Amino acid sequence: MKRIAVLISNKGTGSNLEAIVKAIKSKTIKNAHIVVVVSNKSDALGIQFAKKNKIPTEILDLKEFTKNGQSRGEYDKTLAKLIKDKYNPDLIVLAGWMLIFSNDFIKYFPERIINLHPGLLPEGSAKFVKLRDGTKIEVIRGLYTNDAVKYAIDHNFPFTGSTVHFVTEKVDAGKVILRSEVKILSTDTVESLYRRIKIEEHKILPKAIKLFCENKI
Ligand code: GRF
Fold this sequence. Notes:
- It is a single chain.
- This protein is an alpha/beta fold.
- It has helices at 15-25, 45-52, 62-66, 72-87, 103-106, 145-154, 190-213; strands at 2-8, 32-39, 57-59, 91-94, 113-117, 128-130, 136-138, 159-166, 176-183.
- Helix 1 (15-25) runs parallel beside helix 7 (190-213) and helix 6 packs across helix 7 (190-213).
- The chain is globular, with a radius of gyration of 17 Å.
- The mean pLDDT is 96.
- 5-O-phosphono-beta-D-ribofuranosylamine binds at residues 12-16, 95-96, 116-118, 145, 162, 201.
């Protein structure tokens, strides 16, 4: 059994956490269970969902933590140690986690942290990503979800999509596991486009976890 920790924030809806839970319950992912759901905010919707589903939860509020003079690096280290010592996960899934981790966190889980990115990412730190039909589009890094979707519309991208990739110190530049392209329609708003991206996210994130758990990555 692979042990999974899912990290979320209060900026999302927890829908990707739900998609993972569903894939485990339906045995699409056979050999894994979620050992903890972690958030930096107690009002994250995914925390309520986790509690309803009897999954252990942990909250470590960054603002609370740093108000007594502790650094962001110390936050990353404390969170990493809490997760590692108490839950010892095989895989960390960032499913709407909004804080960028430093090496103080990453070094505790080498090649065991994956992230869901609301855009198409290439391998490494290239500035362009090649689509299935050969078109090259600019890479969107470091933007929050709605901003990333808006950027793709505002810059007339033909496609955007979603990527599951490994987390490294270089933001949004780790090895790509799965990518799904979504065509942008001339009638699209951020809401309509994001809705279609989410449908893809709910497929590729559980699929990437399944691959990891079957040692196929
Ligand atoms: C996802 O759209 C993902 O791309 C981004 O955060 C969002 C979380 O969505 N990193 P949800 O909370 O799972 O609905």
